[in-house]
Design the sequence.
């Protein structure tokens, strides 16, 4: 991924993948699975590790995880050509589709799957509904970049989701946990969300790397030119994104390792609706992007921004509202266990589907190459 974050200018497809990717990049799925396993083992065998890691928090998120998220997002956002974002905001098909998928289809689908597959588990069900409301503003940038999606489109859609998350999260939580179940004759859940905590989460985990990336890109190009910035500077900082991703995964799973490994049966039940959600959202979004005439790059971006969830926020909300040992918190914790390997697999699915269903599209990476953009 480090090379994918910043290697060649847009449209460059001359260099074979294996000749261009480092060992870390070639075996990314292996490193991610290893990071998950290491985190689970550490959380299980090191007494008091979760308490130590949670001793200092930023916006209800453990400081080590916060550091990992910031390191993970900075290189990706430093790569965005901010002067070209106007072409994204003018694409109404992309913007409208993203809003509908993220704020209408996604929460409704998770609500339906939670009730269908966990009718006898109200705590897990509530936790999954909260997960469905937390749209991704961090790791989605990594998955989009790996699939050679549109970086500018991803930055714009993530920013829009962040605004909606601040404005609509609490209202949607009230609707899906109290109003809609009441209309359908189902049991309701009384819950209050801290809008302040949501605002802090968005400002810290999107605002800081976004500002840093914008300033780096603007000042770097102004001082040295685009060629130097994209061909020399970005490849140097690119690996930071991969290291940040792996570090974040280790820390996240270390914090929740005991909860996951001590309840394997419950974890399996929670995993089923999550897996169904990811498959339906990704495949449906990809088909929609193709149907409305988006390019491969924008279709990939639409699919990953609609499929990913902000588990850090969901876990923080669940812990703050229901407690660290609650079933709602466990449901949020299981999320990354399923999302990380599934979305890595979807990267390869997207690359294959791009070559199969977008013939002649210049944004599709060639079969033996991957463009950084």
Sequence:
């Amino acid at each position: 991924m480090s090379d994918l974050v910043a290697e060649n200018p847009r449209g460059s497809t001359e260099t074979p993948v294996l000749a261009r990717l480092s060992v870390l990049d070639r075996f990314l799925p292996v490193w991610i699975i290893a990071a998950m396993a290491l985190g689970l083992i550490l959380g299980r065998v090191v007494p008091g590790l979760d308490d130590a890691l949670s001793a200092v928090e930023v916006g209800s998120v453990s400081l080590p995880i916060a550091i990992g998220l910031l390191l993970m997002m900075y290189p990706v956002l430093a790569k965005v050509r901010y002067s070209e974002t106007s072409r994204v905001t003018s694409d109404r098909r992309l913007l409208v589709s993203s809003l509908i998928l993220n704020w209408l289809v996604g929460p409704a689908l998770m609500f339906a799957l939670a009730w269908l597959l966990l009718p006898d588990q109200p705590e897990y069900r509530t936790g999954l509904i909260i997960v469905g409301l937390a749209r991704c503003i961090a790791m989605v940038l990594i998955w989009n970049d790996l699939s050679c999606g549109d970086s500018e489109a991803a930055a714009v859609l993530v920013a829009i989701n962040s605004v909606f998350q601040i404005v609509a999260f609490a209202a949607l939580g009230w609707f899906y946990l109290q109003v809609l179940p009441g209309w359908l004759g189902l049991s309701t859940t009384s819950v209050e969300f801290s809008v302040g905590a949501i605002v802090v989460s968005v400002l810290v985990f999107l605002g800081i790397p976004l500002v840093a990336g914008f300033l780096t890109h603007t000042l770097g190009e102004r001082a040295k030119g685009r060629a130097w910035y994209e061909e020399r500077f970005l490849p140097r900082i690119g690996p930071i994104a991969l290291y940040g991703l792996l570090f974040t995964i280790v820390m996240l799973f270390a914090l929740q390792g005991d909860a996951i490994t001590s309840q394997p049966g419950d974890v399996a039940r929670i995993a089923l609706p999550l897996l169904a959600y990811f498959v339906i959202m990704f495949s449906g979004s990809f088909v929609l992007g193709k149907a409305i005439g988006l390019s491969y790059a924008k279709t990939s971006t639409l699919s990953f921004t609609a499929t990913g969830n902000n588990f850090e926020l969901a876990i923080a909300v669940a812990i703050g509202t229901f407690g660290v040992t609650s079933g709602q918190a466990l449901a949020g914790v299981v999320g990354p266990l399923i999302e990380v390997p599934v979305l890595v697999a979807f990267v390869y699915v997207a690359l294959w589907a791009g070559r199969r269903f977008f013939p002649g599209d210049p944004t599709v990476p060639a079969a033996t190459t991957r463009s950084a953009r």
Confidence is low (pLDDT under 50) at residues 1-21, 368-373.
